[in-house]
Write a structure and sequence with these properties.
Blueprint (H helix, E strand, L loop, with lengths): L15 E3 L4 E3 L6 E2 L11 E2 L2 H5 L8 E6 L5 E5 L14 E3 L11 E2 L6 H13 L18 E31 L5 E26 L6 H5 L21 E2 L6 H25 L4 E30 L2 E8 L5 E3 L5 H32 L14 H14 L1
């Protein structure tokens, strides 16, 4: 299939989408051409059985490529000059035939340049406490590929009846085996029920079969409310992956996501009247359901460390980052030893305190020793440690 290139009217150079101006721009003479955007073209399609069974198909402006290295189906805009697979770095190979697809309703465009994401990656890799020290120089060699990933968005007006058990705490006194009076907290459970309502707006579901779903889930926060309508101009200079998850499958995943959130809302409703909650069951109904097909921007890079490949993804709109990296066994062992030593110290202090109470008589309440760590560091450290273990 012959390529159609956006040529600059001033100098004849090939124009590409420019992140800063959100327009087509010639890298040679800086000529800028505005991309037409009609937000009225972005519509919420009614979700019904007819839509699920049969989607409207139009001639697309992209070519399907198959990567010889990893076999991933990649949609390459006919104006794109990208030659490397964003997953494994292999060269693209033209597929035997073009696959049918629906034209996206909107595009969340790239707002971060490659220079921006290099700096984001540099800070991220230097903040990995459990990563080997020598790994932190690899950012200088990484190549970032910008690509558009297909997503479904779903809206629904939901209502859920729920049943649950709400618990109230109370303190009771009892005698231990030595006849001493002790106190403990017990929970009295009561059946409860209620109704929660919520309007779900643009629940995102990835529309591509990918091996890095957990990484995508860490960055898939996009402003779909203010995105422009679809235009192939936004693809110039980038690749776009074809959707491989159909509307029905995406809808079922969205229903699970919405049901989980309704269950959480029901739990919060119970906690307005009780101290704790358990066994929340919901009966949910979803009305006025609609959907859209959109493309979102993702930067991808991969690197090899001691023979193993690692992938890092960065949100091309807001810079959120999620990635894989090797963990230093020596650092993990040092942390485990430090935690064990701290636990032994605390236990020794508590035993010494109990001994003093037995000797001098008397403390009603035991104090709990807490470590006031920086919240941001604590969350990051726990995430890294759990991944490492």
């Amino acid at each position: 299939m012959a390529e159609e290139i956006y040529y600059c009217q001033s100098c004849g150079g090939v124009m590409e989408f420019d992140v800063k101006t959100q327009s087509l721009k010639c890298p040679n003479c800086d000529t800028v051409v505005e991309i037409k955007n009609n937000r009225e073209e972005i519509v919420e399609h009614t979700l019904n059985m007819n839509a699920i069974r049969k989607l409207r198909v139009e001639e697309k402006q992209t070519v399907t490529m198959t990567c010889t290295g990893c076999g991933a189906p990649i949609e390459i805009d006919k104006n794109s000059t990208a030659l490397a697979c964003p997953y494994c770095g292999s060269r693209y190979v033209m597929a035997d035939k073009q696959m049918e697809t629906i034209v996206p309703d909107g595009v969340v465009t790239f707002k971060k340049t490659e220079q921006d994401v290099r700096e984001i990656f540099r800070k991220w890799i230097h903040g990995r406490w459990l990563a080997p020290g020598e790994l932190k120089n690899l950012y200088q060699h990484g190549k970032f590929s910008g690509m558009y990933v297909p997503y479904w968005t779903f809206d629904a007006d939901a209502v859920a009846n729920y049943r649950a058990y709400g618990g109230r705490y109370r303190t009771e006194h009892y005698k231990d085996s030595e006849g001493k009076t002790q106190t403990r907290t017990v929970t009295d459970w009561y059946p409860t029920s209620g109704v929660v309502r919520h309007f779900f707006d643009d629940v995102l579901v990835c529309a591509a079969q990918r091996n890095d779903k957990s990484l995508l889930a860490g960055i898939d926060v996009y402003d779909t409310k203010n995105m422009p309508s679809y235009s192939p101009d936004y693809m110039s200079g980038y690749s776009a992956e074809s959707y491989t998850i159909d509307l029905e499958t995406g809808h079922n995943q969205a229903l699970r996501t919405m049901s989980n959130e309704l269950r959480e809302l029901a739990s919060q409703d119970v906690l307005r009247r009780f101290d704790t909650v358990r066994d929340v069951r919901i009966d949910a109904r979803f009305n006025r359901e609609t959907y859209k097909h959109v493309l979102v921007p993702v930067y991808s890079t991969s690197y090899t460390y001691k023979g193993k490949n690692y992938t890092v993804l960065i949100n091309g709109e807001n810079g959120r980052i999620k990635g894989e990296y090797p963990k230093s066994v020596a650092k993990i062992m040092a942390i485990v030893i430090a935690v064990a030593a701290a636990a032994i110290l605390i236990l020794t202090m508590m035993l010494g305190k109990d001994s003093d109470e037995a000797r001098y008589g008397n403390v009603e309440n035991q104090n709990v020793i807490c470590y006031d760590m920086n919240e941001e560091f604590n969350e990051e450290f726990n995430e890294e440690f759990n991944e490492g273990v």
